[in-house]
Specification:
The chain is mainly β. Helices cover 6% and strands 48% of the residues. Strands 3, 4, 5, 6, 9, 10, 11, 12, 13, 16, 17, 22, 23 and 24 form a 14-stranded antiparallel beta sheet that branches. Strands 19-18-25 form a 3-stranded antiparallel beta sheet, with no helix packed on it. Strand 12 and strand 13 form a beta hairpin. The longest helix is centred in the C-terminal third of the chain and has 13 residues. The protein is elongated and about 75 Å long.
Length: 284
């Protein structure tokens, strides 16, 4: 099979299949200028990147020929080959990030057009500790970086207290989906301040200039798994330049409250505890 010359050396495209992991022969895709766009590899090949040497079974490229994404594994999940089987082949990889060196099992990495690291996607169950402008945090699923190297977003591995202009909010999204690490529930601005946070363990109070109080609490919905159970809907709080936007329902518009002449406060919210009290009161 003819190799393809890239800025990262000669790479051999996939040209065989097997009965378990690679039942399909994936095509090589090119940009209009003739540079490779998507290149599945015949076997796992080490690619030298700005963040370290990464084993790869699939690589994609920007139109300028520089790396866009790199995937250490590229098996096809089926009834005969599951996520656990694929995870068993994953090995920890050490990479140099703008926030320090980390070692973890990676689903993939993405890069900006200048080869600067854009995001990291971790395998389920993997966590890493990362330094951010808001302090050191333990992350799962994904971490993304701004072009200047600052941490732009991450998915907290556990409920994590973060300081905001509305007080301390417990950051955590139990519904986070690990498709890729490009976007995550905890977002930071270029100064390291919290720009957006998702929570199920905090609620907010806004005091209006006339003394009125608006309260915002994570809501509940019927569980997708059982008609008799309720599950919590994560509340999303976005800190904009002139206002705070609060969303307690994904099917309804967010509430926007200007920062000027308003005061904001946060407090802990324990849904299971409060539901327990409510049910006891209703029975009395």
């Amino acid at each position: 099979m003819q190799s393809i010359i890239t800025q990262y050396g000669e790479l051999i495209p996939q040209h065989t299949t097997d009965e378990l992991r690679k039942k399909e022969l994936l095509p090589v895709v090119f940009h209009s200028n003739g540079t490779p766009k998507s290149l599945p590899l015949e076997k796992q090949t080490t690619i030298t990147t700005p963040v370290g040497d990464i084993p790869a079974e699939l690589v994609t490229f920007h139109e300028n020929g520089l790396l866009k994404r790199i995937f250490p594994l590229n098996g096809k999940l089926s009834g005969y080959w599951g996520e656990t089987d694929e995870l068993g082949l994953a090995k920890p990889v050490a990479i140099r990030t703008p926030a320090g060196t980390i070692a973890a099992r990676l689903i993939g990495l993405s890069f900006y057009e200048n080869e600067a690291l854009r995001s990291i996607t971790l395998w389920p169950g993997e966590t890493v500790t990362i330094a951010t402008g808001a302090g050191s945090m333990e992350a799962r699923i994904g971490i993304s970086f701004a072009p200047d190297g600052t941490v732009q977003s991450l998915e907290p591995a556990t409920p994590t207290p973060v300081k905001t202009i509305a007080g301390e909010i417990m950051a955590y999204d139990p519904d986070a989906i690990g498709v890729n690490g490009d976007t995550n529930s905890l977002v930071l601005d270029d100064k390291g301040d919290i720009a957006c946070v998702t929570t199920t363990l905090s609620r907010l109070k806004a005091v209006h200039p006339d003394g009125r109080i608006s309260r915002f609490t994570p809501q509940h919905r019927e569980s997708y798994c059982s008609d008799s159970d309720q599950e919590i809907i994560p509340m999303v709080v976005e800190f904009c330049e002139q206002a705070i936007k609060i969303s307690t329902n994904t099917e309804a518009p967010s509430t926007r409250i200007t920062k000027e002449q308003h005061q904001f406060f946060s407090e802990p919210y324990m849904p299971l505890f409060e539901q327990g009290i409510s049910s006891r009161v209703n029975k009395c």
